[in-house]
Amino acid sequence: MNELALSDDLTVIETEIKSYQNIAGQSIFEIGRRLKHVKENDLAHGEWSHWLRSVNLNRTQATKFIKVSEEFSDDSTWNQLGLSAMYMIATLPEEERNVEHRTSKGEIKKPIDMTNRELEQLKRQLKQRDEQNAQLQSKVEQAQRSEEIALKQLEDEQNKEPEIIEKYMEPDDYQSIKNMNEYLVSEREYYKKLADDFRNEVKDIMNQSNHEVPLTKEGDYEDYTPILLKILEPTEVFIQNYKHHLNEQKVLNRLEKIINELKER
Fold first, then answer.
1. b (16+ CB within 10 A) / e for 222-236
2. Residue 68's domain spans which residues?
3. DSSP character for 79?
4. How far apart are the C-alpha atoms of 247 and 259, rounded to whole Å?
5. Which residues are in coiled coils (predicted)?
């Protein structure tokens, strides 16, 4: 078999290599398109895995072909890459595919210029970043919810009717009334004692013999005038102290009645 002679012109060789690369890349897209067509239309009649073996593919490989065809079928930029590299780039977030990233060696590269290992490292870095961002976002949302709850509680507190605290206030005349009450209690005790003393004194007088309490004889009746006069002594004291608090007319009427009773006798 005669082999086609190769050019010694480096530029020609580079052009030929890129041409074959484009053909290889384009073949990946075309294979992916056809696999997708068979799967979506169930042309294998439920025998998808079995049918893939007839074209020397497995489910994992078919998934990669389909994903690449969906993402890059109209873009020849990626044609020079192999299936694995294309698939890893196709599974990157779209906004990360054309920006520069720092590799583990400190080099700055776009995904299209990275090796398969560098693409794998980039995917791990982006995944870790997304997880950290998700955790941070969760904390931010939690803080916002806490803030909303706190603001709601503050608003409820501000809108709450003010609590009325009743404070006891002494009346203006409280102290004078208190003093008067204490005085009246004292007076009541005083006159209670006076009445007790008077009652005991009368009892003693009634029990005394005739020579101790001079009694006058009038007929066959004893004269109790001294006893009555003794009884009237505290009454005179009471009248002197409380004459401004007495109903004068009632007292006079009562005294007049007593006088009339004496006169009748």
1. eeeeebeeeeeeeee
2. 9-91
3. T
4. 19
5. 112-160
